[in-house]
Design a protein that fits this description.
Helix content is 14%, strand content 48%. Strands 3, 4, 6, 7 and 8 form a 5-stranded antiparallel β-sheet that branches. Strand 1 and strand 2 form a beta hairpin. The chain is elongated and about 45 Å long.
Amino acid sequence: MVEFSKAWIRLAAIGLLLVGCLGCGSSSGRQAVTGTVSLDGKPLASGSINFQPAPGLKAPSAGAPIENGRFSIPADQGLLPGEYQVTIIGMQETGRMIDDEQKGKVPELAPIRFREAGNLKAKVEPGKKAHFDFQLTSVK
C-alpha cells in the first residue's frame, strides 16, 4: 500500500511539473505590433514599415507591408520590449504606366519623401498592446 501511494505522489508531482512548464519557455517574449500610417491626413495607400532596435537594445528587427494605411506584425515575428527606430517607405503612383516583365503594363510607383524621415521612434512596453499611429507629412 505504501508503494502504491508513493507511485501516485510521483505521478502527481510529474504531472504538476509538466502542467507548470507548458507555459514556460514556449513564448519568445515577442509581441504583436499593429498600427496605422497616414500621409497628409489620409491613409498611406502602400508601403512598408520597419522597426530597428535602438542602440543598446539586443533584439531582432521586424517589418510589415502597409496597405490602406494599416500594418500588422504577428507575435511570432513581432518585437521584444524596448525602444525602436522606425523607417517607413511609402509609394505613390506617378500617373505613368510602365512595362513589367511578369504583369505587363502597370502604374509606375515612386517613393514618397516624408518630413519626419529618420525621426520616427516607437517604444514597446511589456504587457501593453503595441499599437502605433504614425502621422506623416509629405515633402512637396
